[in-house]
Amino acid sequence: MTDRLVDIQYRAADGVADLQQILDLQLSNLERAVSADHIESDGFVTVQHDLELLTAMNDVQRHVVAVADGQVVGYALSMLPSFEQRIPILQPMCRMLEKLRAQGHPMLQGPFMIMGQICVAAAARGQGVPYGLYACMRQLYAPQYSSLITEVSRRNPRSSHVHQRVGFQLLQRYTDPDGEIWDLIGWDLNTQEPIES
To answer: How far apart are CA 41 and CA 108, in angstroms?
Structure first.
């Protein structure tokens, strides 16, 4: 049985040390770095950032981290739509958001932020870390943004399950140019509903 981490704290990312630890955690959970069994049971992340891009994103809107014993054990990346040109894999999502916004989708009528990626270290899984990250994001960003938007690959059932429990709603399902099927989902940051953990 794995020892449970105690005293996990949630806060905005602060400085290069946090950002480098995010990159280290990201690298070990990239789809190409994990087994098929791991993908099925624990999920994966798709996009690999570099320190320059991650810093630029954090300078505009700080990422959220879960920290235990001084180590980042989880993160949720904050991204404004203006970064889409620097992350090509997200461009189909941004085109879909523009289309839905033009069609008057209520979740996209106010200012929104994109959650660019969420990841939890193996040692911290099963302890509600994604819910803590999202609760922190809501506390930090509800005053500025009406909703939080992200997308989840249909091949990532663990992530889909977590987002459903947080309260994300399906906005659109689409297939990108490479044939990957994505659920574009949104969460009302001003909802009073508690996050289910």
So the answer is: 32
